[in-house]
User: Fold this.
Amino acid sequence: MGGGPRTFPGGLSKWQHKRMHEKLARGKERGLLRHEKQLYLARLRSEIRASHLPGAPASPADHAGPTSSRAHIRALADRFLRPGAEDLWNDDDGPLRRARLPPHQQQPARSLPSGARMVDWKQVESGEKLKPPRGGGDWKDWEELDSGEPTAGRGAGNEQRLPAAFNQRRGYGTAAPWWWQWSPGSGTPSQRKEASFGFFGPKRCYSMMPPCSPCRESGAVLMPLVARQLAEAGDGRNATPLALFYTQERLYSVAAPRRFGQKWRPDSSDEDEEVMPAARDLRLAKFVASREDESEDDEPGETSAIRRKWSTAALRNCDMKRDRRPLKSYEEESDDDITGRIQELREEIRNREVLGAERRRYESRGESVFTNKRFDECGISPLTVKALTDAGYIQTTVVQEAALPVCLEGKDVLVKAKTGTGKSVAFLLPAIESVLNAMKSHTNHRVSPIFALVLCPTRELAVQVTAEANVLVKYHHGVGVQSLIGGTRFKLDQRRLESDPCQILVATPGRLLDHIENRSSFSVRLMGLKLLVLDEADHLLDLGFRKDIEKIADSLPRQRQTLLFSATVPKEVRRVSQMVLNKDHVFVDTVGLGAVETPTKVQQQYLVVPHELHFHMVHRLLREHIDQEVDYKVIVFCTTAMVTEFMYIMLRDLKLNVREIHSRKPQLYRTRISEEFRDSNRLILVTSDVSTRGVNYPDVTLVIQAGVPPGREHYIHRLGRTGREGKSGKGILLIAPWEEYFLKEIHDLPIQKAPVPQIDQEMKQKVDDSIKIVDMSIKEAAYHAWLGYYNSIADISRDKVMLADLASRFGVSIGMEKPPTLFRKTAFKMGLKGVPGIRIRK
Ligand SMILES: Nc1ncnc2c1ncn2[C@@H]1O[C@H](COP(=O)(O)OP(=O)(O)OP(=O)(O)O)[C@@H](O)[C@H]1O
Assistant:
């Protein structure tokens, strides 16, 4: 594929060279991890020593602050001990062994953190050697424990027993770690004390968060509608996780966090599922964590020996590892209470009817994205309101009305709202408010901390959000907004960050990580962070970005507010959103129950055309649209960057006013074209997935998607480039007969089959001629990219012979008599070696 030299320094082949670099990168990462583990242990030791010094602080609160050693230990512990962190461990850490718990601790009378046991403080204070636990138990396996002085309850005659850990081999005693009482949330001291065996790791610490009731959380702002109906439906206990709120003309739901002791089910993105937890469990059982897991969450100190593993690795008794959570399959779900389930399903149907009636009433009002609420009624700074007014923003949109109150309260929020409804302003306003609040208390810094961080999946989106934020902070002197995106010079970024004010940073994950990993002064600035926003959150939490986001989240203070925004929130994303959101987060859904996720004023059609005619058909559709719309503005989405390039050259040759943006173009070019397209009419933009999400080009009249998108979410976001701010628009999906399988994924959207327009012979000939002039190297690259794209789609790649045949036909359609060759290794990696129709490079 692609260009580039075939041999590399040292006579290495491309693949050897690549492997060598991968190996080096792995080695570097291992080194970093080793270093961090050592640091963790060292920190732990010094903390223990410090706690034994005279005049040691009496309570953990004395060490508060994001850069304190305790915060550091906590962060490190989080990183290494979190469920799923097994990936961070390597062979050097020693074999994993399942803990053999001493029998007397298998059911502790009082909840203890794992690895801890009751210690008699008198025994510890007298310096007496600790005896192995009564009832047996193996010290070797059970490297335990000892002591530190409890911050509360120590003193003469006090018999209180505290959880402790002792490292026999090293001969020092630790324990009752200072954060045994530490709580990131609020709660009464007694609650904390009871529930806070926060022994390394957020899970336990979070589990002591105080209960919060939906009514108390949000009821003051909005009027609960369904909560009452559900309560009437009979099961008050199950009815709490969701309240549907109805204000004046708007209908949206706010899923309040679970009540205490009631586990939030991350897999439930559907509103209906929130309404009927039991029914939801029935349908989505495969995502629900095991029962042991639940009990562990709800009973913070209980040892769940079944899944916990210990190792003899460097962290000794601290390096607790966990198995991956076994996922329950649908079949495993117990069916012993069929009658109860039927009853619950009946209730669900009844509730749906009620909600359906509300929805019809709401929709009958006609869909406007704007509400009657003005920004000056939202409790934001008057200077921000002034800037909003200058920009022409007077009334809030639906998502702004719904999300602002909750975000301004300081809660973690997950927001779902349709494309083009003003989500950027909805998260930028809370960001600005939190910066203003933070600046009041941070006046003496030479370089101000970064108080708000907005993460965007693409560079274009980051640039756009930065521009929007700059408009909003216009009157806040001293508040600076900067962007950090790939494709620019690292050193320049660094200089700009140091010289210009930057309290709000808008970044793409890759470049941000570069700065975090390479500039310690930058990481220090992030330690003051108050608010983190993930725009297009579902995409950022997707597999491609997840590791980066995890690393970024690890380097941010835990005491922060996190906001997630997207037009699509698949179930899987709700599950992994826990990675960054706290447990008591609020889910604001302005799309509504059972409503379509696409803008209602966008007409959606699909055309089924043989693949050979796709380029001709795109040309035909564009010509037709240009004839109909004087001020046309069209986006054509292609499957890959190289196919985009091919399409662009062909359309340009056909004398259409066309521009291209894709990942193969330099960043400056991308930014320039993006700005040009934003400000112009009578222009066609041919683009790949880099423009799928978030980018706001006003007044786009038509979106054509040529070829099947990678998934439902992509379809919705691409379509969302038209019909913004409640305007009308049109979307056409162009697929080949063998791509019709995709229609199943969007069957609930209002998309209709359109009759296939005729392509006359003269027009066909013109297109064929334009195809001929495209350079052969671009055609070859387009063929390779096409093959790679469809090979990554499971529905198509299953039948490799068919895929190779389709690829050959695609090759013919772009003017290649014979398909180009593939490198042997590439073919092997793609599973195409030996497949008829695939030619291998000799
Ligand atoms: N309150 C408002 N009044 C008028 N215009 C607004 C208001 N809020 C946002 N807009 C405008 O609406 C348009 C769409 O906003 P934005 O790009 O934030 O949408 P979005 O919901 O983030 O879309 P996407 O899901 O595609 O990212 C922008 O042009 C923005 O300037």
Q: What stands out?
A: Residues 393, 395-397, 400, 417, 419-425, 567, 694, 696, 698, 720, 724-725 surround adenosine-5'-triphosphate (CB under 6 Å). Residues 775-841 form one domain. The mean pLDDT is 71. The first helix runs from residue 14 to 52.
